[in-house]
Amino acid sequence: MAVTLDTDLARVLGAKTAKAMAESLDLRTVRDLLRHYPRRYARRGEIARLDDLQVGDRVTVLAQVRKVTSRRMRNRPGTLTEVTVGDGAGQMQLVFFNRRFGKLEEGAWGLFAGTVGEYRRTKQFAHPDFHLISGDDDEDWARALIPIYPASKDVSSWVIQKSVKLLLDAAGGFGFVDDPLPEDLRARHGLLSLPAALLDIHRPTGQDDVERAQDRLKWDEAITLQLVLAARRRAAALEPGTARPRRPGGLLDAVDAALPFTLTDGQRDVGEELAAELSRDQPMHRLLQGEVGSGKTVVALRAMAQVVDAGGQAALLAPTEVLAAQHARSISAMLGPLARAGELDGDPSGTKVVLLTGSLKAAARRAARAAVADGSAGIVIGTHALLQQGVDFADLGLVVVDEQHRFGVEQRDALRAKGNRPPHVLVMTATPIPRTVAMTVYGDLETSVLRQLPSGRGGVASSVVPVSDKPAWLDRAWERLREEVAAGRQAYVVCPRIGDDDTDTDDADAPDDADGAPAEEDAGGGSDRRPPLAVLEVAEALHQGPLAGLRLAVLHGRMTPEAKEATMQAFAAREVDVLVATTVVEVGVDVPNATVMVVMDADRFGVSQLHQLRGRVARGKHRGLCLLVTEARDTTATGQRLAAVAGTSDGFELARVDLETRREGDVLGAAQSGRRSTVKLLSLLEDEELIAAARAEATALLATDRGLADHPGLAAEVAALATDERATYLEKA
């Protein structure tokens, strides 16, 4: 059979298997199957990490049957079969209802696949798929290393393994695979050819084969990513921009004079960096990252003021209406009469600050768009509504994207396209990023970092409240919250879900992919884990119980924009003591009088998200308190992760912890974008040198006169990544 990388899997595997792979794993072509690498390798009789399994994991394990028992169920008709399997380090239960398995005999070895559940503190699989390894099996099961693939309920690891073997037999080897990497590049870095690497990754004879193959395949991922980024940098460098130099005596000087605080050294240094770049004809493309509360908004405001002084407009894109409205309020307050040019009490030397969101009434929307179009609005703040047709700028000079991880490159570029000439771009994020992540994810941007916090901040003390081990601590937490309210301060209580039903889909309310796991069947077949706590239920319980008598309000993504705004205004005006909310308060919400943050089910949030939430308190002179409430025990990986969050306020250190505990695909796109990740082997913590080398090679390749013209295979890989919506490492990293 003539096979290419683009051959449909149905031609090789048959329609039924190909359909299952397409629907459950999104594997459709020969290329997809060959790039679906084993997650790990098992040896018969070798420790297979049963003791490392976490509840909720979908895994395949290699283990031996130790015990098989069947009994009649007491509370329902039928038979319950329980099978104990072990791997030399740990053991777990397999549970089958109303089915008998004569082949599951003591001593038999097999591969068992399922979702890890827990019943009475014992890990188990309910109705797992399995494949027993017998002496009659083919040579695959006799190999030194047995590949364990990322699998699904409908396509097991052994089906994938047999499919790869079938492809190998049908094609007569992997000779049909063309190598996209230039031969001299492979020689410089001692890399295998692509056909050899694919053979060794799928059918290794030893661990050395695996390591050499992974090193080569990581290069494929790294250089493709870096070529896309290098191409973006080169294109940006060739764009004709408009210089926006600083003008003495203008809006920027007025802003500096009106600030009620002294800029930190970091704010001044970054401000000078931005001022210099804004003064050049080449558009600025810069990432400003910093600790929560480090004052990025003030730095951005000073840059916007410089652009307005130079006759241009600045647009600030925020991810939520709550945050956009707050930016508009705080910037207008800082500017005072300078934000109301053209109004009776406005300063004619200032400008107009306009808020544009999707919830504006028709008349207000028309007025806002008119001010943007005629240029009277020098500072425009909004949500995705800024990207819509009909929003036209007179002279867009600067685009500021706040909380970039909530937006994609498409949105950034859509706003840039509204300028007459390419505007300057400042991307901000309060999620600190390790160097390798910034180099890989934001490699088309120069980077500035703000680490220093403004003086006068009270700081935040964090503690884990382990309710399973110490239930009395939760009572003390509510007492502590009441003490702060009695002292005239305010508090947040954050929950992972809204309530009423389980169909919460508002992105602003969705917690990061942390340790949350779907509930399994009960009664010996699943997990004791309850659904996540919800705002509406928790608020009612607190109102009736430990926080009775306090003024409580709720805030979540299903509320109307007007209701959200009214609630936040009431909280800011101290008319509400405790705000019970989802993560809609995660970014940008600034109420200096709030000093307590209680995060319910903290184990269901990611590390960076907890750090963001914690940053909502102690934004004034009073010391803050963040309490992470969890049922996870401190000896578990989840408990240790929460202890790490409580143990340091260094966001950059926590960013590394976050990266260590999350899948690479989460950072580079797959899980957060809903699409397959292009990164499967590359580790941003372990492969820093490789990523840096790939960046240098990519830059050198594109710097030649012919670019990728002499490397069609590599050009095709880059084109597929750039045009197939799979540059997901940039979209939501």
Automatic annotation (TrEMBL):
- Per the UniProt entry, what are the Gene Ontology biological process annotations, in alphabetical order? DNA repair
The ranges of region (Disordered) come to 497-530
Could you tell me which Pfam families the record lists for this protein?
A: DEAD, Helicase_C, RecG_dom3_C, RecG_wedge
Quote the InterPro entries the UniProt record gives. Answer: DEAD/DEAH_box_helicase_dom (IPR011545), Helicase_ATP-bd (IPR014001), Helicase_C-like (IPR001650), NA-bd_OB-fold (IPR012340), P-loop_NTPase (IPR027417), RecG/Mfd (IPR047112), RecG_dom3_C (IPR045562), RecG_wedge (IPR033454)
Q: Tell me, what is one Gene Ontology molecular-function annotation carried by this entry?
A: DNA helicase activity
Record-annotated Helicase ATP-binding domain positions: 277-450
- Superkingdom of origin: Bacteria
What SUPFAM superfamilies does this protein's entry cite? Nucleic acid-binding proteins, P-loop containing nucleoside triphosphate hydrolases
**Helicase C-terminal domain: residues covered:** 473-665
Q: Where is the composition biased (Acidic residues)?
A: 501-523
**Keywords, A to Z?**
ATP-binding, DNA damage, DNA repair, DNA-binding, Helicase, Hydrolase, Nucleotide-binding
From the Swiss-Prot or TrEMBL record, give the protein name: Probable DNA 3'-5' helicase RecG
Organism name: Geodermatophilus obscurus
